[in-house]
Design a protein that fits this description.
Molybdenum cofactor sulfurase, MoCo_sulfurase, pyridoxal phosphate binding, alpha+beta, PyrdxlP-dep_Trfase, five-stranded antiparallel beta sheet, molybdenum ion binding
Length: 744
């Protein structure tokens, strides 16, 4: 409460609509009840509608009859009147006179910009000038200009500030610097004088509603005179337009100026708190990308706070790490470059060569490559709306403090020794192994990637791992690999392989009867395919592997069974050959893998995943002590099978496996590849035959098992290279076998 009192002391005149018909607390309680457990901070991407607004729209649409406005019926005339009123409301909001401006409805801002770009009469005398910080939708207009011989160039606009940090209002205080001019080819000079802006646009296409008359079998068309009708192709979204007035009612009730003051107070408060954060060594935590004043009198602060976070050693936290952890805390925000490449490069200090190098390294929009060569490739963006509250901002501040400022005590105890493997000699490891006090508790095989597995007492090994483990997968008809991340219901598909009969049995609650497939027969197969996948694990030499798979496809009857099971068209394929064909480093250079002849199935990162029963027990103790964080109905503990391990061991100390470099189970030698990076898949659980999702156990793991953006639990194993030759077709793993290990 003291923090809020301090906030209100500074921002009380601005925050919460003190002179409005409703306070911010009343607005949230009556109009945004759905935000009870969610902190929504992406209003610049898409703000939220109020529940009262939707009730008014629903009442309007269920009590009125709105017809297509391209007619003369009473219902059509009603629609035309509503559309006309909506245009005027937009113009009034923008203080635009209908004598000088027209309101054209499009599907969005991008469509409006595209309309201008494709209809402007570009020529070699034209120049398209845009700012470095413009959105991609503005940059896209450049293509129309350059293709028609026009010049294009970007400008930087910098506003001078006083010594106290306040922006100057004088026009002379704005400095404009021009970037190089771009041209592609010459085009014919546009003849004629320039007139009114709308008439300047030369529209080619016409459609229903944009013409006064046309003749089908000769070249004749007479376009409508109205600017709006000229550019609105086809039937406009008149039901959406009819709803505009209900949104403007909120604007007019609260007033735009009060909304701006409210939002500004939250943005200013957040900026000050973030800039005040310091690590234990005194280094700052947060870098803000902003040039506005932090004074309360500065009304140009806006609703957006863009930032990145640093570790105590000055290295960057990746923005995707921030986004993932925020999601676990019920905070929704946006990360990346926000479709704004110029601003991204400008504020992050990325040169043209950096941008091209990142692209060659495989970085594209919306991927997980958030830090490349020590530089962030994007940022974290928080944006407030008129319904945002102090509590929203405070929860984000507390999240940053607990996740990126406070250092979990376990980090200091030596846990999580390795996030990935390092090069080391493998000869003579037999003499370095000692009893770990552990034994093999269970063995689980997952024949179909992301489907349920089955446990056994003993199981044979193959060159790719446990025999038949992840040897099959499901692909959508568009080629996408199906996993529980996208299709959680896959966890309800049970599997079992009878080694004696050589039959794979599959069952699903969505399908009648059991599907049985002979694993040693080609009778079901109907062809081969080939595709490539990027390995998800960065190798110790700094390279990602590219794996070429040759797969066999199944007949339609089997594909239809799985399509019914997952609720979408898909195909079952089986790996018959795989090969590490090439590698790509994180700086874009190519190389060759060492194990080019090794066989891999469809495991994400390694052939084996090992989990310790004691580590799971320690996690459950932490979950039980934080029961208030759990969703209603979610279990306060997890079973080891929640992590989809192949091997579960028992008998040692919690997290002792983190430090293992090599181990032997029975007569088989393994090498540890380091910790397994966990994702939201472990948050799915089953309840009364349904797949549910909670924030646990990933949220708790994130509080003490985080290393450089990864949340690690369990270790990944492969056969030890130095002892691989000793692996034969008669090698088995058996429950109860002792585990020997050596640590770093």
């Amino acid at each position: 409460m003291e923090d809020k009192e301090e906030f209100l002391k500074e921002f009380g005149d601005y925050y919460g609509y003190p002179n409005g018909p409703k306070t911010i607390n009343e607005i949230r309680a009556t109009e945004f009840k759905r935000l009870k457990d969610t902190v929504y901070l992406d209003h610049a991407g898409a703000t939220l509608y109020s529940e009262l607004q939707m009730e008014a729209i629903f009442k309007d649409l269920t009590t009125s009859v709105y017809g297509n406005p391209h007619s003369q019926s009473d219902s059509s005339s009603t629609t035309s009147d509503i559309v006309r009123e909506a245009r005027q409301q937009v113009l009034d909001y923008c203080n635009a006179s209908p004598k000088d401006y027209k309101c054209i409805f499009t599907s969005g801002a991008t469509a409006a910009l595209k309309l201008v770009g494709e209809n402007f009469p570009w020529s070699c005398k034209s120049t398209f000038m845009y700012t470095m910080e413009n959105h991609n939708s503005v940059l896209g207009i450049r293509e129309y200009a350059l293709n028609q011989g026009a010049a294009a160039f970007a400008v930087d606009i910098k506003e001078a500030v006083d010594q106290d940090g306040a922006s100057r209002s004088s026009v002379n205080s704005v400095k404009v610097s021009q970037h190089p001019v771009q041209r592609r080819n010459e085009a014919e000079v546009l003849e004629g004088e320039l007139t009114d802006a709308a008439k300047l646009l030369k529209k080619t296409y016409f459609s229903g509603g944009t013409v006064a008359a046309s003749i089908a079998d000769i070249d004749f068309v007479r376009r409508r005179d109205g600017v709006e009708e000229h550019f609105e192709d086809g039937t406009i979204s008149f039901l959406s337009i009819a709803s505009i007035r209900h949104g403007f009612k909120i604007f007019n009730t609260l007033t735009t100026s009060a909304m701006c003051r409210h939002i500004m107070s939250l943005a200013m408060f957040l900026k000050k708190k973030l800039l005040a954060f310091r690590h234990e060594n005194g280094e700052s935590v947060c870098t803000l990308y902003d040039n506005t004043s932090l004074k309360v009198s500065s009304h140009d602060s806006g609703s957006i706070v863009s930032l990145n976070l640093k570790r105590p050693d000055g290295s960057w936290f990746g923005y995707r790490e921030v986004e993932k952890l925020a999601s676990l805390s019920g905070i929704q925000l946006r990360t990346g470059c926000f479709c704004n490449p110029g601003a991204c490069a400008k504020y992050l200090g990325l040169s043209h060569s950096d941008l091209l190098s990142n692209l060659e390294a495989g970085h594209v929009c919306w991927d997980d490559n958030d830090v490349i060569n020590g530089k962030p490739t994007g940022a974290v963006r928080v944006s407030f709306g008129y319904m945002s509250t102090y509590e929203d901002a405070k929860k984000f501040i507390d999240f940053i403090r607990s996740s990126f400022v406070s250092i979990p005590s376990e980090f200091k105890k030596g846990y999580l020794l390795r996030a990935k493997s390092n090069p080391y000699p493998t000869e003579g490891i037999e003499n370095r192994l000692s009893s770990s006090g552990c034994y093999l508790k269970s063995i689980t095989i997952y024949p179909i990637k992301s489907c349920a597995g089955f446990s056994v007492q003993s199981w044979p090994l193959s060159s790719a791992g446990l025999k038949y483990d992840r040897e099959w997968l499901l692909k959508s008809w568009t080629g996408e690999i199906l996993t529980q991340k996208k299709v959680p219901e896959m966890s309800l598909i049970s599997t079992f392989i009878d080694l004696n009969q050589q039959i794979l049995s599959v069952e699903s609650p969505c399908c009648e009867g059991k599907l049985q497939i002979k694993v040693d027969s080609d009778s079901y197969l109907c062809g081969k395919e080939e595709f490539y996948l990027h390995s998800q694990r960065l190798q110790h030499n700094g390279y990602f592997s590219i794996i070429r798979y040759e797969v066999r496809c199944y007949e339609n009857e089997i594909d239809q069974w799985f399509s019914n099971a997952v609720g979408q068209p898909c195909s079952l394929v089986r790996c018959c050959h795989s090969q590490y064909c090439s590698t790509l480093s994180n700086n874009g250079s190519m190389g060759m893998c060492r194990d080019v002849d090794s066989r891999v199935n469809f495991a994400n990162e390694a052939p084996f995943l090992l989990i310790s029963e004691e580590s799971v027990s320690d996690l459950n103790n932490r979950l039980c002590s934080n029961t208030q964080k759990h969703s209603v109905g979610a279990p306060a503990y997890v079973n080891p099978m929640r992590f989809r391990p192949n091997l579960v061991i028992s008998g040692g100390e919690p997290y002792a496996e983190d430090g293992w470099r090599n181990l032997k189970i029975g007569n088989t030698y393994f090498t540890s590849l380091g910790g397994c990076n966990r994702c939201q898949m472990i948050n799915f659980y089953h309840q009364t035959g349904q797949v549910k999702k909670t924030s646990e156990p990933l949220a708790t793991l994130a509080s003490y098992r985080r290393v450089k953006g990864k949340i690690l639990f369990g270790i990944l194993l492969r056969y030890d290279p130095g002892n691989r030759a000793g692996l034969d077709t008669n090698s088995w793993l058996t429950v109860g076998e002792e585990v020997h290990s050596n640590s770093e």
